[in-house]
Amino acid sequence: MKTKLLFLGLVATMNLGCFGSGDVVGYAMNRTVDSAADRVGERIGDAVAANMLANNPQLFYAYSMSVFQMTFYQGGYYHYGSNDFEPGQWVRFAVTGYAEANTTERALLKRNEDGSEWWRVETRSTNDNGAEDVVIMEALFTAPDEAGTRRVVRMRSLIPGNTEPSEVPITEEDRDRWVVQGGQRLTKESAEGMKVGTSEVTTPAGKFTCDQLQTQMGNVTANWYVNEDVPGQFVRYTQDEDGTVRYSNELVAMGTDATTSKLGAF
Questions:
Q1: 27 burial via Cβ count (<10 Å: 0-12, 13-18, 19+)
Q2: pLDDT for 163-194, tens place per residue?
Q3: Which of 19, 13, 20, 7 is CA-nearest to residue 48?
């Protein structure tokens, strides 16, 4: 299974501030935009793939948290309103980088009366045999606290090699580390300052008029293309190094019909 694909994307997106948890994620974060990033990502991915399938809880936590970071944050941040989905809305992205590709999808399945929410995150990649590997995770997030932070308090998953979904144990300690952090939201003022113009962006999901936001760190330039009519607002994210696109995340499909659990979560 080429889970290394997901970590190559993670290495790229962490470059601009995305936080992680656990030794595996920290190891990747310390080596962003490194000439050996491909080899590092490959080693990390192979290790996670081999052990995740053996039901190693700690490595699964690291894996799942890193995938959540990649799907909820673009370039390490999310923008004002970018997580304001309505129940049923979903977005799918094609992720490319380091000569590899995969798709990620996230959907808001259900919003409870207390403000808690069920989300589904799904990833697809091609394994070493040329077949498609699918990982599905459905997580219950708490209602946001005063800082806008949500915590994962329950999860079900279905991973390659398993025929049935299973419940993922989450401890009190896990809950405090396994978060979608409100502090990663850019302020309106910062987003306005990062805006460099307006662009017409065409993707398999359609044609969008987007605000283009940009920032630079050393020889790496990040561009966000956002449209407020898209769930989550993101249409495309690119990360260029010395003028060459090293990583991109592009909207390829979206819909409003994701209202049921695939894993029997509710």
A1: middle
A2: 899 998 888 888 887 787 766 778 889 888 99
A3: 7
Determine the residue type at 129. Answer: N
Task: With beta carbons less than 8 A apart as the criterion, state whether 67 and 9 touch.
Answer: no
Residue tagged 């799942």 (tokens): 64
Q: In sequence order, what E strands does 161-226 have?
A: 166-168, 179-180, 195-203, 206-217, 220-226
Q: Which residue has the tokens 């969008």?
A: 208
CB 107 within 8 A of CB 90: yes
pTM of the entire predicted model: 0.79
3-state secondary structure string across 49-87? HHHHCCCCHHHHHHHHHHHHHHHHCECCEECCCCCCCCC
Instruction: Find, among 156, 174, 146, the residue nearest to 119 by Cα.
Output: 156
